[in-house]
Fold each of these.
Amino acid sequence: MRWLERMVDCIRPWLITLAVLLLTGLAVPTPVLAVQPDEMLEDPVLEARAREISQGLRCLVCQNENIDDSNADLARDLRLLVRERLQAGDSDEEVVDFIVGRYTEYVLLKPRTSGSALVLWLAGPVMLLLGLGLGVGYVRSRSRRGSDPEGLSEEEEARLKEILGN
Amino acid sequence: MITELGHFALILAFAVALFQAVVPLVGAYRRWPGWMAAAEPAAICQALLVAFAFAALTWAFVTSDFSLRLVWANSHSAKPMLYKVTGVWGNHEGSMLLWSLILALFGAAAALFGDNLPATFRARVLGVQGMIGLAFLGFLLFTSNPFLRLAVPPFDGQDLNPLLQDPGLAFHPPFLYLGYVGLSMSFSFAVAALIEGRVDAAWGRWVRPWTLAAWMFLTVGIALGSWWAYYELGWGGFWFWDPVENASFMPWLIAAALLHSAIVVEKRESLKAWTVLLAIIAFGFSLIGAFITRSGVITSVHAFANDPERGVVLLAITGVFMGGALTLFAFRADDMASKGVFGVVSRETALVLNNILLGVAAFVVFVGTIWPLVSEMAFDRKLSVGAPFFDMAFTPFMVALGVILPVGALLPWKRAKAGRALRRLVPAALLALAVGALLYALQSGRSALGPLGLMLGTWLVAGAATDLWVRKGNGGLGRLRRLPRADWGRVVAHAGLGVCIAGISAMLAWQQEDIRVVQVGDRVELAGYALTLEAVNRVDGPNYVSTMADVALSRDGNAIGTLHPEKRVYPVAGMPTTEAAIDNGVMRDIYVALGDPQEGGGWAMRSYYKPLANWIWGGALLMALGGGLSLSDRRYRVAAGAAKAPRTEGVPAE
């Protein structure tokens, strides 16, 4: 059961973080609700970019929520950080790189297409090719059993009629 | 006392399940009629016992018996009655009891309605069903017993998680479980057929109604969950690609593939091995879903009440059933050679393509869901896989499926002419193109998602209408009414998919939002509507305190109504929730959520204009309705009724 221990070990820090955050979080009267009006930038273009970036970043203390939707304080800090970098003139990529540099790639909801994550990205297309290959093989094997005893095609039926009738 | 009786009934049910898992299978192997016939009363008896246990637990919740640990941890005397009842399955132990109950009920239904099955086959189906029952009742009794008492009963309970105190979520688990567990029937039929060594057209006909029922319930369950997320979480998202959502979506996709391939088995005696494999995998995904939800190894917003130890037991159950069934499959695969012969262009081929696309789509969801775990364990690389990945990796398969669907539905069996089907679809294609082009011209300069999505939706709905038109032939409208229900079911379900796709793309593409601080009396303009915050009041609910706003909604000066978004605090659970207020409409929803009071006075308010929002769940309901129509088709009713006659004749002989 070593793998199990490994698995539990993997999630333990997160459970502890979560527990601590839940406990400390309860001291705050009410949680903030996702993006707040006071966080938003004046410039609508910049703000739209900030929203777009936020939706691809994970709230690290939440369970599978992006920082744009999350109520957590850390998500708010990250939202403000994103806006700060944008106002400093960073491009979208630079902002994301900055955040990843600080919080590792765990923060990205869309994993990068590099290294072992390539397996994840290629799993679908490879499986589709495999499935299509098998499917084509199956359909051909079924259609090649030429002399079908139970059914005639429309042409065959027409031809039969022609021979018998006329 | 009632609690102890319930506990005892559960232990008896475990014993009965053990009996049901052994005796009928031995009987079928030895051809002993008495032993085979034991399956039926055992299945019914098991269902009655589990139902009694469930009733006993419900009674404890309804009467707020806090001497029960489970009731104390998940209920409160001030909680409304509805949520006292639904609180029974709002926790791990209770929800597993509900799972076992539904499992036993399906078993009993197979015993009652299975008269048309051959004796050995029925004994084996019920035997396998007994094994699954045994595993879950054992799991319940030994790791998650709901009937444990507290030595010193507390004065009051800790209340149910407030997020779960909601009508949408109250009925979401029972429907989902009806779906998950319904797939156990397909599994039992598959394994029984493998033991029997025979899969034929009749098998396809038996397995399809069970799969249809399961898929239908799963559709409703998923739609309810998504609808709940939409109005409860405060920003109107409807799907988050959360591991637990994925856990319900994978069996849904596989069940959809299965009910299509079962038609090929039924009508054409082809694709047999593949269909049996799908039946096994579909239930496998249900079990994996239970594992993901209950173990919490993959973090998720849904993970209330879970622990890894229990997860291991569920993983073991999954392993044993999947391993056993797949081994059996490996031994028997050669006995299931296809019989039917068909041309490259035919409905068979279209359904093979349908199965490939649905299968690969389910596979993508599966890989994406477990990848964080795999990546961390195998590559020591911690990463997240979230909505942006799934949107990108999953959507193409669904689009491809949508594009080929209307064509496939029009192709005849065996051998078809592609040109003929395509010619009939010209009006549908033109309509779809026109809709797409018109919307593209109207929206000027935004992403192509909306027009393309609505084009696909129109193509599917118009394709379904064409299907109906072709089926009608020259028979006039009267012929429409006499069409088999299965035809109606197919058309309605396919149109439902189109409606759903249209709703999703419209909402994603054209949603408008407004987030700002408003003072009482302020007006917000949004997509031609005006929202005025008129008042914010404190309102006391039965077990919560609410801050409720009155927001007047109007358009061009005409009042539409008043919306009441709320922020609630549940003091016992110590948890706040947001209750968004929605003005529902066919073409759009206006969605308002109240945020926090601001330091300088006023309130944060989020307002959304969500076009075609209700089409998402409407489409899902249409799909479920289509499933229901197919289920009520004459050939299943006849199959069930035909066997009644010989049985009545058989009575005097006994």
Note: Residues 413-511+617-622 of chain B form one domain.
Amino acid sequence: MNLYVKTYRHSTSCLLAGGRPKLLSRHKALFMRISILAILLTFSGLLMARSGNGQDLNKIIISIDLKNASLKEAIKKIESLTQLAFTYRTADVAEVDHINYQASKASVNNVLADLLQHTGLQYDQVNGNIVIKKINKQEQLTNITIIEEATFEGGIRGRVIDETGAPLANASIVVLGTDRGTAANKEGVFNITGLKAGKYKLQVSAVNFTSQITEITIKDNETLDVLVALKEGTGKLEEVIVTALGISRKERSVGYSTQEIKGDNLTVAKEQNVLGSLGGKIAGVQLSGSSGASMGGTQKIQIRGTNFLTGGGEPLIVVDNTPISNSNFAIRNGRDYGNLAQDINPDDIESINVLKGPAASALYGLRGQFGVIMITTRKGKNAQKPAVNFSSAYSVEKAGNFLPLQNTYGAGSSLSFPTVDINGVPTKFVDGTWDESWGPVMDGTPVRHEYSFYPGDPDFGKETPFVPHPNNIKDYFETGHTWNNSISFSGGGQNTLFRLSYNNTDMKGIEPNTWLKRNNLSFSGSLNVTPNLVVSTSLNYANNKARRPSQGYQSLGSRNMYQWFQRNLDMNKLKQYKYADGTFYQWNVAAPKNGVYTSRTSPIDWNNPYFDAYENPSNDSRDRFFGNIGVSYTVMPGLKVNGFVRQDGFIQNIDGRNAEGGRGVPSFWIGKYESKEMNYEFLATYNKEVGNFSFGANLGGNLMTQRYTYLRQETQGGFVSPGFYDITNSLNRPLVKNILRRKEVRSAYGSVNLGYKNTYFIDASLRRDISSALPPDNNAYLYPSVSTSMVFSELLKVAPISYGKIRASFAQAGSDIDIYQTTNSYAMREPYGTNFPMYVPDTLKNPELKPSLGTAYEAGLDMRFLQDRVGFSFTWYYQQSENAVMNLDVSGVSGYSKYVINAGNIQNKGIELTVSGTPIRMKNLSWTSSFNIARNKNVIKELYPGINSLILDQNRYSSVDMFLLANVNESFGSIVGNAYMRDTATGKILLDATNMPMYVTNHNFGTVLPKFTGGWQNTVTWKNFDLSAVIDFQKGGQFFSWTKMLAVKSGQAAETAVINENGKNIRDPLTDGGGIKINGISSSSKQEVTAFVNARTWYRNNLGTRIYEEWLFDASYIRMREIRVGYTFSKANIAKLPVKSLNLAFITRNPFMIWQKAPKGLNPAELATGATSFNWLETGQLATTRSFGVNLNVSF
Amino acid sequence: MKKLLSIQLVVALLITGTGCTKFSDDINVDPNAPSKASNAQLLTYSISQMANVIESVSGLLYVQHWSEKPYTDNSRYTVVNFDFYDIYTQPLQNLQTILNARNFDINEGSVNNQKAVARILKAWFFWHMTDRWGDIPYFNALKGKDNFSAGYDKQKDIYYDLMKELKEAAAQIDNGNKVVGDLLYTDMASWKRFANSMRLLMALRLSKADPAKGKAEFLDALNSGVFTDNSQNAVYIHLADAANQSYWYYVANVQNDR
């Protein structure tokens, strides 16, 4: 004790001696008193500044044996034996050498005193570091400038150094909880004034060093001396993550797998649907999207494979802990309106944390079975200067990945030209009734095209050459563009936080007459009404208006061009679809009598695509509001009570029409949707640290109400007055659908967590949910969870390991049943005169339903090495989902064809691995890489007693069926359909008497689910340039493609007109050497057969109609999702501008597919269509859209 | 302040978690579908389904009496399996619901009359099915979740029971109110004749297979009163609007009008 004081007294007197005489002479006495007080304060402050581990050198006992060691080695030895860290100038300690010293069970205090005796060195303890310095060399302390003012509030002066004692210039020092902060100067010296007396936390941080938080006490008019030594590290203090219900936890104490993505990582390439930007970045989380042509269309998110028996099971999405709807109003064949999460502005997001399974989401009870996506929005910061950020991006979109088509043969069914009688003359013509291209060679023969029969057409009455238009489908697509502008204002003071942001997106789609306009406005703010009472709010408004293209198989839209079209059609002619005389140019019509159409023509199956684009648009618009208002009150230190009111609501209108002049009866329909979900939440949190233990408890309750109404009206039978698209214009009684859906859930939950020595942690939670959708006599369920973690790196301090945690958990979470499943009702039919028939629906409801239950076991390992430079995270999980609610097919003989029951037991197990690191870290060049991969295996253990197979989905085309089944003891989603009949010995295809392939029905092709999914993200920075790229991949999985099948069936696909081994086209007659060479086994003679067969019979009547095996493709792919190349202007360049930073980047989304197993023209990564659960069937994907643009980011 | 908070805590928990499992009565009753249906409405629907059963064109296409364009699938025997489930789940389930009802509304007809008409129509549907498919589930059918695996019964047993049903149903008709929602007839005597005429035809069908039973039932039905005039036929009349039009009219005039 004496030693310390003596030393300081020396220093003070030296200070006084070498200081400023003027001041001293005037206020000598005062300064003396102040300095002594300062000394004592410093000392006491330093004592308090020690970390909670209590490093009293007298109490730390070591045994040490040194032989001919240098002082530096001795110090290293002491470090390895204790948790102490030493700081010293290498030069100072290098002078001491040849130490022979032995001590057994001596205090560090004494050991140091011994070692440093007669060395001219002394040691001081500063914040858990031992600083060794030369006695009487005061240069370190004399550089501190004495605070000038005579009277002042308390202050801090100090110095920031690194482990070698070198100063850390520009280190940042912040007094937490106040607006005082500063940066250290070139010598690492800083001082902060104007602090009122009290306890504070001083946070010192520097780039590439681990921040430190020190507790200090300021007394009035006193200056505290502080010396802070920082260790090299990643700058993360104790990483804190947001877990279920918005409860913040230290990352090390969390016993289950979560993964966080920072907001900046989501706006790399300005994706239009925020969920899409998660793709490839999180292990076990797969995003399968639809084409960008839908502009914000479906992005389906799946965590850990398919867990739900009937395939649904999307995770819950919460924004600042407000649950928001992610409904999807699209269907497989129709417009893809996208899922509602597209209303979130990615620029507002601070981070997204994915809770991957019941272990993490048990606290969400009935909503947590399939994981939770927790989105935290940006808030204002307590900073001296408010921040203004502006971002502008402009990109162009083009269609890509076109299916290769043949351009030799045109419309028709045979190689000879059909003729039609025009004024008695048989004339060659293009037969519009054939929506296939098995016709004659397009050799320029003059023929009467369809358009020549329309009086309004410029080529009316003329014969024009029958020639190919190889780019006709490509020419349909236009160049789209996207303007994305956003601005945000954020700031805050001692008691307030404020952030306001606005985003405007204006898109023109790649299909004609399609567009999207979106506006997002968000505000978040908080006010400390009193030091213990905080009021906060987050308000978000989104407005969407769009006109989107139609996907899938139907007469509306562009997809049918690959499926049923004529290669001779001229897209430029089709574009002039409207004639001056009010008729429309349709190509799929029969030739008229006498060579002229005298009235509007009605197509057989397909409208002119431009007619559909301009005359049959569908508009959707939505106003969305979600947000929360909350109050937080600190009852006493450690105990906080929060109350929140949360809302998510939207009003949406969608309309569509079928215009006169096209296929079908003219009609108009309009749908109005209104939805509101309210959550009233209460949560009390308590945290306390006692000695080595840390204890936390949370207790809360939630009341949720949901209300949804849907009103849709559609005209029937045509219009009274042509061209007036309004429900009142319906010829017959309009079809009306009027739906109301309501639900209420009451919940109570609590959790307890315990930590020991910041190393061992255990966590338990319980939630009780009472749902109105469940039978009234049995509507409450409990969901428990237990998890533990151990940060073993704290126990064994092995050099390369900087962090290591092992974790395990068990949890149960559920999924509520749909409403209205427990009571039966009747159904109505259209009236018969004045009678109103009603019938008993075919589905029998069940008053004994239970919610489905997910039980999960999880274990994992997180490690980081070399001061967090590289690390990995590994998780193994096993999850069982039981009691899924399904409509069981029962024998219709009972009077019902379906019975709603709980059934099924499906098991998922898998592994997830994320490896990330910084392979290159140099002054001007750094490369950070993160790779994730996940494998999920599932098996259906049980369906229902007596039932071994469940039809999940079915597809029928031209009377041929294909099924998606859930079979017991198989992996989920088996595709069953027609396959080639094969010879069992050789595996070759069996041929019938006409050499056509034979087929079997109900062949099981295996599961549609992938084997592996994952992604790889790389960021390289070189000087002022930054480059980042994201790749996602999938191995395995399969899908069935209508587009490919029909492109071949209709004679459009390139392979239907190739040259055969005889040098002739396969379509040439067999007698001329044409035909396609096939090889197989004759089913009658069992001999191998190699022969040439008629190409059209082979492709159209057999493969394209009956052999579905040909059109089943492997869905493996490796895709480049987004690339960004940016340049940050240096401070010198922008010094003259009023901006703080400026970054210009080139961005691209979906630039190319690196590899895919499926043929060109199909996109296995964009199979998601609307609300259908699995991606197994493609009935008409929209064109792959590639986007390229520039992005300017400015902050003021 | 602390006391107030702890009270609020307890109250909040009580409301949300521990006690209140009761919601308002109608919150989980589907408001989008009627929860009550009168027997008359169920009857009307069943009668409307009679047209579906006899107007099916598959048979005509199979034997090439009819052909169609542009899709010729049915004429080329692409559909190979025809199942009867829809007949059970739709008209028959409706009729069974009438027979199982516990409450009858006298304004819709006397109890006997309502039940009798349901039995007669039920017999008509089953007769059609057994003539078409032979052995079908009959005795254990239409029992809902009590029997999801009804077995097939012999056609002979079905025919016998149907004839018994028709006889009893005709006898059950009383002088009370006539049934409402009846699209076929306007008085109950017509139903008696309809039932007996059905029995007569069924008996004729047995003439080679079971001559004794056939003869006995034929004479019994004839003496109980059968159709004597075409005006007494059971005729389902289609209407002009799209929902109630004849399928044949649709196929001939609407679908192929291109």
Note: The mean pLDDT of chain A is 86.
